[in-house]
Amino acid sequence: MDTDLSLSGGFKRIMLATDGSDAGRGAQAQAVCLARQCGAELLVLRVVLTNPEYESMVPQRMETETREVEQFLEQVADQARKQGVDCRVMSRHGVDASTLVVQQAEQEDVDCVVVGRRHRSDLARLVIGDSTARIIGHAPCSVLVAPQGSAPMRRRILVATDGSAHADAACATAARLALSTGLPLTVLSATLGERSDEQRARANEAVQRVLYKLKPALTPAGIELDGMVEQGRPEAVIVDVARSRGADLVVVGSHGYTALKRLFMGSVSRRVVGNAPCPVLVVR
Questions:
Q1: Of 147, 176, 208, at which residue does a domain stop?
Q2: What is the mean pLDDT of residues 191-203?
Q3: In this structure, are 187 and 123 located in the same domain?
Q4: CA angle 148, 150, 153 (to 5 degrees)
């Protein structure tokens, strides 16, 4: 199905969801930078895991934690405002972080949720945490997952496509970000090794179609635009190309078909988000 790959719209309200740990600092930097580049409002949600029984048993401890949360939120807001970002802060207590984040995203009608990803061992990076996976699966908007210590975008944006409508949404979002940041954009498709020449031709057609659609908007703005078709498992290809091309943001659709259909279904999606050397934006 052909779509227009419209570049209208964009992120108007971004929500950073954090637990205040060091692992969330990369997400904080990404959220502030993204809000500034998009001219978006930034909401900062501090998630505090607790339960009524614990709160009733240690009320003094809860008061101390509340003050610490308020101080943390004001520090984040102050840093954002110093960069010219309109910022609001809030905190939510509960037993499940993903539920709190998804509910707040729905209530605030946000366009993108930003969450952090901890450094993990090689084996542990094969999957992402259940909470992050649930946020990606249930959030009503796009979700950006930022590794611990990741820096704001400075080099290149990489977007994956298989020609589906969901991939088109990812490509349009990536193009808008390229226009906002002035960064080069690479459009990538992958074919499995055992697939026929026909499958590779379809992948190439998908990439060329995106380039054709985006070129009129990006080229006059001085944005470098190129395409690639690589052979291999989609999740491995995306991660490898992100490393080799120095991408500091990978953009993918929430669903797809053909070789990339499994990208955000089960373990494959977790490997991409868990192994990418940079933040991954899952576009809904």
A1: 147
A2: 81
A3: no
A4: 155
Is 213 a member of any domain?
yes
Give the CATH number, domain containing residue 252. Answer: 3.40.50.620
Query: Which of 114, 147, 180 delimits the end of a domain?
Result: 147
* Residue listed under structure tokens 């993918």: 252
Whether this model's pTM surpasses 0.85: yes
CA distances 188 to 158, 169, 205, 238, 266, Å, are 7, 14, 11, 8, 21
Which position has the higher pLDDT, 247 or 51?
247
pLDDT for the residue numbered 36: 96
- Amino acid type, 103: Q
pLDDT tens digits, one per residue of 38-71: 999 999 999 888 877 766 777 777 788 888 999 9
Range of the domain at 221: 157-283
Domain count across the chain: 2
- Ranges of beta strands (E only) in the chain are 13-18, 41-49, 87-94, 112-117, 142-147, 157-160, 185-191, 225-231, 249-253, 280-283
